[in-house]
Amino acid sequence: MSIFKRIKDFDERVREKIGWKILDGYLLRKMLGTVVFAITLLMVIVVVFDVSENIQRFLSHNIPTKEVITGYYFNFIPYFINLFIPLFTFISVIWFTSKLSSRNEIISIFDNGISFNRMLVPYVTGAVIIMIISLVLANFIVPNTNRKLNDFKYQYFGRRGVNTTYLHIKNSKNSYIFVERWDKMEGVGYNFTYEEFDNNSIRQKISARTINYDEENQCWQLHNYTRRVITPQGMELIIGGEEFDTVFNILPRNLYQDAFVSETMSYTELRQFIKEEKMRGSSLLANYQIEQHKRLANPLGIIIMTLLGVSVSCRKSTRGVGVHIFIGMGLAFSFIFLQQVSTVFSVSGGLPPVLGTWLPNIIYLIITIIMLKMTPK
Length: 377
Fold this sequence. Notes:
Layout: H1 3-18, H2 22-60, H3 65-102, H4 105-111, H5 116-156, E1 164-172, E2 175-183, E3 188-198, E4 201-214, E5 219-230, E6 236-246, H6 252-255, H7 267-280, H8 285-313, H9 321-348, H10 353-374
C-alpha cells in the first residue's frame, strides 16, 4: 500500500470518527481560501506601494534585483502577513458568510437539521489552523526575517543604529554599570564606570575611557582604565593601564536600549532576554513584556474574531453584504484602537503589560459571547 493510500485511509477514519461532513469541508475550504486570497491581494498591494517608494533607493545603491527580492521582500512580507492576519481573517469570515446568508445557504443548513453550534465547527477548525500558522510566524519565522531585513538595510542603505546615552544597568545584586554613550554600530561604549558594593560601602570601582566586547574570547576589553580597590583593612589600591580584560554579567545587546530589538528574537530568546532585563531594571522592560504577550494574544484573538465575524454576518440583510462589512470594519477598527490605547497605558500609564495586552481580547470575548447568544439560530 502506497503512502498516499495510507494517508487517505487515515484521513477517512479520522473524518468518520469526529463526524466530519461534506458541509464542514465546504465551509472550511471557503474560509481558508478567502483568507489566503485576501492576504495575497493585500501583500501584492503592499509590495507595489513599497517598490514605488523605494525603487530609487534600490537603483541608487546598485542593489541586484535578486538581492532585492530574496534579501528584502522575502523578509519584508512575513512581517506584514503576521501583522494583518487577524484583521483579514475577520473580514474574510464576514465576507464569505454574508454571501452564504444572502444566497439563503445558511437557512438551508438550518433546515437540514444542523444546529448553529454544529455549523461553527469548521469555522473554529479554520481559526485554529490560522492561529497555529500565526503562532509559528510570530515566534519563530518573523523574528528571523526581521533580523535579516535589518542586516540588509545596514549593508545597503548604511542605516546606523541610534546610539544609547546615559545607561545605568544592574550587573549583579551588589554591582552596577554606567555607560555614558553606547555606539551600536561600532560596538563601543564611552566613559564606562563599574561599581561594586559591600554592606552599603564601595568595594571596587573601575573607570575606562572606552569599552568593547571581544566575541572570540567572550570578555570585555577596557581601554585607558583606572581600577580602585578598597581592601578589608580600609586601604585603597589604585591600578591603571592601557587595556584590561574582564567579565561582566552583560552582553552588548543589554547596552543598546531599543524597544524594537525584541522583534528580532524568537520566543525562547525573548523570555531569557526579559529575565536579564528585569534583573537589570531596564526602563524598556514593559515594551519587551508587551511584545512577549502579543505573540500569544494576537494569534488567540483570531478565534475570537472568527466567532465574532460569524455572529455579525450570518443574519440575512435586505441591504446586502455591505451592511455586514460596514459593521465588521467598525468592530475591527475599534478593536485595533483598543489595542493601541491599552499598549500606551501599559508603557506609560501604570497598567501591567499582561493586562494591557490581553484586555482587548477579554473585552471582545465578552462581546462575542453576547453576539453569539443573540444570533438567530
